[in-house]
Amino acid sequence: MLSRYLKASRDWRQRWTLLVDKIERVQTATDEQHLLARLSHPARPFVLAFANAHAMNSLAASAPFFAALQSADMVLRDGSGMATLFKLLGMPPGRNLNGTDFIPELVRQFDGRSIAVFGTQNPYLARCLNVLGLKLAPRSSYVSAHGFLDIAAYTALAQAQQPELIVLGMGMPRQEEVAAALRAALTRPCLIVCGGAIVDFLGGKTPRAPMWMRRLGLEWMFRLAMEPRRLFQRYVIGNPLFLTRAVRLASARRG
């Protein structure tokens, strides 16, 4: 079965190599704080994305998704799978800047400035905004929209409201496409974050794994147990596929 997926895209090695070289790895807690400060003051419309094992499998199968992710202004390393990949390549993986933990810290940096949240649907969107307003950025003003509009609707809303931070919670690859369209449409400085399931997490739709599982890099196992039918392809098929590709890429680079 894995061989069928591996043959689906013969140029996946090139795509993986290009994205691996693009990913910005942060080595220390101090460096992470400097990164937060830098991202909170963009000089132009700026897209921040995250690369995890699922993203790597997805870009191997989809050239448009690869192009969208590769076009992001910055890509951060997300998850234990990516740490394994970097170690196999002989590169220090740096800190795990997964969006679920990193994005709330980023939102805090924008407290007092306008924030837009586009993604998921109510009641989870409303609950997410409540968390942001009470705990993370209580002095900010907010604009929101669910995650099932045409891309033009998001660009029109962003142009009218001019938020300084836009958090997208639409999942891959849609959010990367929306992010690229927003960057092209906006003229004032703005940070556009591809947040995956962040709105569902903050809105209480998707629970977090216990801390011990997160520390061991096993949050994927917890999520699979919670949503086995939806996440079977991503984890049961996807994880062995990712590891197979990681070993092949490392072997090819050594050769």
- Strands, count: 6
Adjacency order of strands in the biggest sheet: 2-1-6-5-3-4
**Fraction of residues in β-strands:** 5-15%
- Spans of at least 5 consecutive residues whose pLDDT stays below 50 are none
Supply Rg: 18 Å
What composes the largest sheet?
Answer: 6 strands, parallel
Which structural class should the secondary elements be placed in? alpha/beta
Determine the N-to-C terminus distance.
26 Å
Anisotropy-based shape = globular
Mean pLDDT: 92
Query: Helix count?
Result: 14
**What is the string of helix and strand elements?**
HHHEHHEHHEHEHEHEHHHH
Helix content: 55-70%
Please, could you describe this protein's structure?
- It is a single chain.
- This protein is 58% helix and 12% strand.
- It contains 14 helices and six strands.
- The protein has helices spanning 2-8, 12-22, 29-39, 53-61, 63-70, 80-88, 99-109, 124-136, 151-161, 174-185, 198-202, 211-215, 219-226, 228-254; strands at residues 45-51, 74-77, 115-119, 142-145, 165-169, 190-194.
Tell me briefly what this model is.
The protein has helices spanning 2-8, 12-22, 29-39, 53-61, 63-70, 80-88, 99-109, 124-136, 151-161, 174-185, 198-202, 211-215, 219-226, 228-254; strands spanning 45-51, 74-77, 115-119, 142-145, 165-169, 190-194. The protein is an alpha/beta fold and 255 residues long. Helix 8 (124-136) links the parallel strand 3 and strand 4.
